[in-house]
Specification:
With about 325 residues, the protein is mostly beta strands. It has no helices and 41 strands. The strands form 15 sheets. A three-stranded antiparallel beta sheet has the order 1-2-9, with no helix packed on it. Strands 3-4-8 form a three-stranded antiparallel beta sheet, with no helix packed on it. Strands 5-6-7 form a three-stranded antiparallel beta sheet, with no helix packed on it. β22 and β23 form a beta hairpin. The termini are far apart.
Length: about 325
């Protein structure tokens, strides 16, 4: 079977190819599921907790056709002949592949070899979204003499996977986003790489937004508005409260804050400046509670200012006339 697929035993006793890498072969000898899923043959679905269901896939018969490399050598079907540094041809596990200039590696059709990162890059960004096309892993060209079903696999262990993320920049389905965030659809397949640092992937991987933005159900990004709280000029605004320190650090409990250059130690209720060995008590902010008369009630026990609309799913308030949004208000007086 081609690289990137899985050999599964058929009901007839022979073997066929499942189009998923490291797939689960179903007991009926006819179908298969992606890695990490469980076959439910009676329902015709693949089940995985938290990711819902996908349809089982029919196992296709294994191909026995060869590709003629033109110099007397040949490669298995669904592979590509690539000239190696020795001058002879080897086999790339990708079909209609791009042979890299180092004559050692190859990439899928439509991708470019990036020898610096050891990855296959697709230089394309969807103009309608903030997603880049994900890259693929660069594979080693295998000499013709080693193209058995056991050796025609990805053994590119000499490539540099030293990216910032623990998984080497690879997504759950084997696509590659490097330092960018992988966005997935409901079936767990990568839809693209978010171009924003610490970006937020939208529902079903339709788009991604900045960390300061929120995605709508349609995949649009709503720029963030500041809250309606007005603080003194020397104070710092933290959500719906004012911290009595300039350029303060807002703590994660939304109740406390620390002076500039300090970090919040909520467990010990203190502010720490490790470089100077200083400690201070957390500053408890006074929560601003607006008047109910100035708000409209939303459908989930939240409130929004009268000039804004309720977006109940994300518990935010947004304006139809101005850019931006704010968190829903939980209480009023």
């Amino acid at each position: 079977c081609p690289s990137g697929t899985t050999c599964c035993k058929l009901a007839s006793g022979g073997y066929g190819c499942c189009p998923f890498p490291e797939a689960v072969c179903c007991n009926d000898g006819q179908h298969c599921c992606p890695n990490g899923y469980t076959c439910d043959v009676s329902a015709g679905t693949c089940i995985r907790g938290g990711l819902g269901e996908v349809s089982v896939v029919q196992i296709s018969p294994a191909s026995v056709g060869d590709v003629d490399c033109g110099d007397g050598t040949s490669c298995p079907g669904d592979t590509t002949c690539c000239e190696m540094s020795s001058g002879v041809f080897g086999c790339c596990p990708y079909q209609d592949a791009v042979c890299c200039d180092d004559k050692k590696h190859c990439c899928p059709n439509g991708f470019a070899c990036d020898m610096g990162s050891g990855k296959c890059i697709h230089h394309h960004t969807d103009e309608q979204t903030n997603l880049h096309t994900p890259g693929e892993k660069m594979l080693r060209i295998v000499p013709d003499s080693e193209t058995s079903s056991e050796t025609l696999v990805d053994d590119s262990d000499d490539s540099d996977d030293s990216d910032d993320s623990d998984d080497g920049g690879f997504c759950k389905d084997g696509k590659w986003c490097g330092a960018e965030k992988c966005c997935y659809n409901s079936t767990g397949h990568t839809t693209g790489c978010c171009k924003f640092h610490k970006g937020v992937c939208c529902v079903d991987g339709k788009n991604c937004c900045r960390s300061t933005e929120i995605c709508t159900v349609e995949g649009d990004c709503i720029p963030s508005n500041s809250s309606q709280v007005t603080c003194n000029e020397e104070d710092t605004k933290c959500n719906n409260s004012c911290c009595p320190h300039p350029n303060a650090v807002c703590c994660g409990d939304n109740k406390s804050c620390c002076p500039e250059n300090f970090t919040c130690d909520l467990a010990n209720q203190r502010c720490i400046q490790e470089s100077a060995g200083k400690f201070e008590k957390l500053t408890v902010m006074q929560h601003h509670v607006p008047k109910c008369a100035d708000l409209k009630k939303c459908g989930n026990d939240g409130y929004c200012p009268n000039h804004m609309e309720c977006l109940n799913m994300f518990r935010i308030c947004y304006s139809t006339t101005e850019q931006g949004h704010q968190k829903m208000i939980d209480d009023c007086h």
